[in-house]
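User: I'm putting together a small comparison set for a docking exercise, and I want a reference complex before I start. The sequence is below, and the ligand is flavin mononucleotide. Could you produce the 3D structure with the ligand included, as structure tokens?
Assistant: Of course. I'll restate your input first, then give the structure tokens for the complex.
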Amino acid sequence: MALFAEQPKTSHAQLFLAPMQGLIDAQMRDLLTRIGGYDGCVTEFVRITHTVHHRTTWIKYMPELAQANKTQAGTPVIVQLLGSDAVNIARNALNVIKLGAKQIDLNFGCPAPTVNQHAGGAILLRTPKLIEEIVRTVRKTIPENVILSAKMRLGYEDKTQAIACAQAIEQGGAQLLTVHARTKLEGYKPPAHWEWIARIKNNISIPVVANGDVFTLADYQNIRMISECKHVMLGRGAVQRPDLARQIAAYNNGNLIDPMPWQEIVELIAEFFKICCLRAQASNKYPIARLKQWLAMLKLTYPEAATLFNTIRTLTTINEISTIINQHAKA
Ligand SMILES: Cc1cc2nc3c(=O)[nH]c(=O)nc-3n(C[C@H](O)[C@H](O)[C@H](O)COP(=O)(O)O)c2cc1C
């Protein structure tokens, strides 16, 4: 399956798995892309300050660099950079490209106070000129065949500069823009303002990917209609409903498929726990924390996940938890 930006004029409606720091790491990308439906996924943001990261840092965020930038299922992975120092972002971009990255995404939307205090993420939406300078500097520095994309919110405190920011991203030379349809101040509060994505799309000529609050196939149909975008990115919905992309891809091919039953979800949970344990090696903390985090999200779709969560809540060892998951898998 071709990565969107390798064929910017493609007519096929593409689906992307969102960058989600602390939630969609390489383990989750691996699992979700195996279920199917995705054309590409994006790493958690890699923060750029004054240094140029070494290979170990890049591999930590994007282990897929060692497997031709693809998840095990073959879905292309895009690396996302966050910062405000244009020259240093460009240097880092070049560095990760030397390690094999094929597409760079720039973050203009992170709402985290620590990031915003250091002039990164959503705070840049107050200064479209700086956004343009960052995009242009990176574009000029990296090889022509490397795709440059960006992801933005609608603004910091309000939406007055939304179109100016999108135009700055286009003018700077990005080839693709994802829009999360909220301001920083709106956080994750519903609703996402999909009609604003259409306004942006109608004021720039690069392709736009619509993002925000797609939790079901019906949401997907609505965001497509209201945003007027063909391409969509899934974030929390992808984690709460692991087969959402597969359902959407089937729908786009003219088929309706049954949602994944809980029994199959338990098998995925067992697999996820196993890959997190392998990654953590001796530590119990990482796999247990990731499992609880996922169950807390899955229970919004599957009530059975709440039962499993309550059963493992106080357990502290991998063996105890694996035994419980296996019992649920056999139930
Ligand atoms: C826990 C969490 C972490 C996120 N991390 C990132 C990130 O690293 N980079 C980024 O561009 N957006 C990040 N986002 C925003 C998502 O990519 C997405 O734009 C947002 O969640 C809206 O989409 P959704 O409603 O489908 O979840 C994050 C969101 C959440 C909830």
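The radius of gyration is 20 Å. The longest helix spans residues 262-280.
User: Thanks, that's exactly what I needed.
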